[in-house]
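Hey, why these numbers?
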Amino acid sequence: MAKVKIQGNAAGTGVFTILSPDSDTDRTITLPDTTGTLLDENSSLPAANLTGTVADARISTLTSSKLTGALPAIDGSALTGVGVTGITSSANSNAMTIDSSENITISNSNSADTVLTIDSQTANGNVGILKIAGDVAGGGLGAGEQSAKINFFQSAEHICTISSKRSEPDEGELSFQTRNTSDSAPVERFIIKKDGKIINQSGIYQVGTQTNTNATGWNFETSSASTISCAQNTAVKIGNVTASGFIIINDTTVTGQAAVIVTGGGVVSVVGQTGSQFVSSSSPSTSQVGIYNAGGYVTIKNGKSSTMGISLMTFRTRTGQ
């Protein structure tokens, strides 16, 4: 039979008292079969003795200072307060990657297409806006330098670019570059100037669809453009530039007649018309509309008593007569 021994400390003078609670029930305290020190509510529990699972109810407050080192993999689906204000995510796979060079890659493993949607969340009809801004501060800007651009790639191959130009005299232009099979990089093909003019670097315009029975307009359409008002005996220049080339002219308000005009070498000729009112003269009669050269400028004069509206399609092949 094992014995229970209570041994005092010979160096101490204090009296230790073992008290029983106010209870009418018999109790048994079983001592562990090991050597050690009993703990009370004021004692610290050695970390080596923390094993098993701690019930949720036993964890009331866990400060960040208690979390050090590498955390184990956990399910973060129920975590709150760990995101960025203004960003909501329900992604179930990696959708955005930022590499060590601060390049951002957006990918979609759930679809063949990667989609970036910019959506205005206001209810007043605002539209989604994508703003691409370059830092153009500083001197030494050369002609044709770009302030922002969009590059298109097929895998690692650069195939085309849309860019805006940032330096005078090209500032405000929009440039379109494409890559032909013989090109090592995209080449500028098409430019929208800041005044709205369009430059096609190839010089070739190809129509993809003919004006068929279902078309709602013609391949080259100026019918909705503003007309030129031409009062009686008033000279009106066709453009404020000297020019050679040819003109298609249409009286849109009086007779509806149209004509084809060719000009060059100081001469303006009516090569064909649907009536007889257009003449190569600076002194048209009251039934005529005169077209003539005045100092290198192709000029129209209406001899009729009523003001007429003129619609034009012009093709300039030379900057002078």
Remarks:
- Residues 209 and 215 are 9 Å apart (CA to CA).
- Confidence is low (pLDDT under 50) at residues 138-142.
- The first strand starts at residue 96 and ends at 98.
- Residues 146-200 form one domain.
